[in-house]
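Project standup — Tuesday

K.O.: blocked on the structure for the chain from last sprint. Re-posting the sequence here as requested.
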Amino acid sequence: MRLLAAASATAISLVLLGACGPASVPADQPDAVEAAADAEEAAGPETAAASAPRLEQLWVTDGFDAPEGAALAPDGSYFISNVAGDGSTKEGKGFVSKLGVDGTVLMLRWAEGLNAPKGMTVLGDALYVADIDQVVTFDVNNGTKLNTISIDGAQMLNDMTVWQGEVLVSDSGAASIHRLTPEGPQLLGASTDWAGINGLLGDGERLLISTMAEGYLIELRGADAEQILARGMKDADGVGLVPGGGYLVSSWPGQIHYVSEDGQVTTLLDTQAGGILQNDLSVFGDVVIVPNWLPGTVTAWRVVRD
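H.V.: unblocked you, prediction finished:
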């Protein structure tokens, strides 16, 4: 295990994804068409890139075994889930690591006995870990296993969050979300728009959802209050709020995207060609923690606005 040198002095170059097309105007209104074309040209790649933040690398730590999810510990350190094998196989090799704020490994195997742990969240004194078809809880202070919550019919539990006082977990295989209540797991909902559902993030009165199938970023405020905020981020994984406005969304093959408040998507980082995956991104303040399933690293970034 080693802590790799930081590259905080070097900002990642911005690459425009261009997810938003021109506004729709009637073909029999040439003036409107021309005006729309002029507006699109004025708001080209340079304008979009200038409005997006930069990512500055803080540190990279290696030595993990297929790291996938991250959660913030009460003491300010980070929990990192390690799948340690195939993501859908029950082998009992999965574990949770604990990292310091500077990337130092405080304990590689802080909690063990999991199958293929992915998303995590903390509520009260418990760390909740999504583990294929069940959620396992651990004491946040010492890693002692507390409980196992089986979810009937679950196919691939993935990300977790706390929303309106309850723990939620996404099921990528069933395009659904489950609530963990004192009476047991309950289905929050399922939707065709949630195909390949992955990331979850509770934010006040709304729940943010990312999907892999269509690469959506979705805002959910209730059963009849759902809005697609952005599109085109194929294999979307983690979701985070950006200080000053907007969102970060990772795509696990190797991208980190910035989504502006008006839904424009800019790709800040693309490591796919180098074989570095960008998995369950989490934002804590202005620090972004991203487990890289391959090559088995965890990377920290700082969000910078010029």
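K.O.: great, moving the ticket to review. The helical segments are 30-42, 45-51. The first helix runs from residue 30 to 42.
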